[in-house]
Amino acid sequence: MGRERRALRVAGWAGLSLALATGGCLPAACRGRAAQGPSAPAVSSELVYEQEIDGNSDIYVVPAAGGPARRITEDPGHDSLARWTPDGQRIVFTSSRTGNPQLWEVPADGGKPRRVRSNAASESQSDVSPDGRQLAFLSDLGGPPKLLVQELETGAVREIVRHGDDTILGNPHWSPDGARIVFSSNWPRGHRIYVVDVPSRELRRMPRAALWGCEPRFTRDGREVVYVSRGFMAPRSRLVAHDLETGRERVLVDWPALNYDPAFSPDGTEIAFASNIAGEWAIFRQRLADGRAWRVTFGGPARYPDYRPPRVEGR
Q: Residue 44's pLDDT is what?
C-alpha cells in the first residue's frame, strides 16, 4: 500500500510538471495550479526580471497578466537582479558589462543605462529605499563583503553590516517604512535571515526555523518576511512567511521544485517568484487567497521578478 501511495504521488507531480510546462490548468484539488498568461486575471502592474536568451542575460519587462515582453537592456555582459525605483520610473540592476559586477540604472521604458557607482570592487543586489533617497547594496570595496547604504543626493556611504572575510551576504530589501533592511548571511554558520535597523545598525537574527534561508523580502505591511527555506543542497525549496512579532510561519509555495525569488504585488494579494518546476527557470504569479498560480515567462530561463510600483499622479 505504501508503494502504491508513493507511485500515485510521483504520477501526480509528473502531471503537475507537464501542466506547468504546457500552460495547462491543474485539477482543482491541486494547490499551486498554473495556467498560461492569457487566462490569468488582469493586474495593473508589470514585472521586471532577468532572462537568458541565446546565452545572454538581459533585463525584460512584461505585463504581470501576461503578454509580449519588452527587452530593456542589450549587452554581452550579464545583466541581472533588477528592481524598480519607488516611483516606477527607473530600474536598478547589476551588470558585469565592465568586467566586474557593478550597479547600473536604466529608464523604465528603455534607453541608455547609466552607471550608479564606479570602482574596482564587486557591487551588486541594489534596492532603493521607499522614499527614493537611499540605495542599499552589497560590496567588497576595501575588504570583506558588507552591506552598504548610499545617500543618493550626496553620495555619502555608510557601512551597515560586516560579518567577516568569508561571509556570503544576499538580497537586501527595505521595509515599507524605510527603517529596516532584511538580508541573508552565512555568518556564523549556515545561511540565515537577518533584519537590521538602519539608523542604529542593531542586528536581529531570525530564529532557527530560518536556517538555510535566503532571498528574504518584506511583506507589503512589513509585519512578515518571506524567505526561501531550503535544506543544504536539497532538491526542492519552499517560500515561507515569518511573522516578525510572533515567530509564526506559514508556507506560501511548496511545489516539488526549487522555488526562489519571491516578490509581492503592490496590493499584497499575490506574489511572483521563480521556479524550475517545468524544467527551466520561469516566473510565476500566485494568488495568496487560494494558491492559484499562472506562468508568466517562456522562451528561456528567467529569474528575480519585481512588481512595478503604482504610478503616482504628478510624477
A: 65
Nearest to 172 by CA among 137, 205, 141: 137
Q: Identify which has the larger pLDDT, 165 or 249.
A: 249
Helix, strand and coil percent figures for the chain, each rounded to 5: 10, 45, 50
The residue behind cell 502592474 is 45
Beta bridge partners of 142: none
Give me the architecture of the 2-20+30-307 domain, per CATH.
6 Propeller (2.120)
Whether the CB-CB separation of 35 and 23 falls below 8 Å is answered with yes
Determine the 3-state secondary structure of 208 from DSSP: helix
Decide if 62 contacts 296 (C-beta within 8 A): yes
What's the mean per-residue pLDDT of the chain?
87
> Would you say 215 and 177 are in contact if contact means Cβ atoms under 8 Å apart?
no
Q: How far apart are CA 103 and CA 118, in angstroms?
A: 8
- With a CB cutoff of 8 Å and minimum separation 6, the contacts of 93 are 50, 59, 73, 79, 80, 81, 82, 83, 103, 104, 105, 106, 126
Residues 6 or more apart whose CB falls under 8 angstroms from that of 189 comprise none
Residue ranges of the domains in the chain? 2-20+30-307
Note whether 74 and 58 are within 8 A (CB).
Answer: yes
Measured at the CA of 240, the angle between CA 309 and CA 266, to 5 degrees, comes to 10
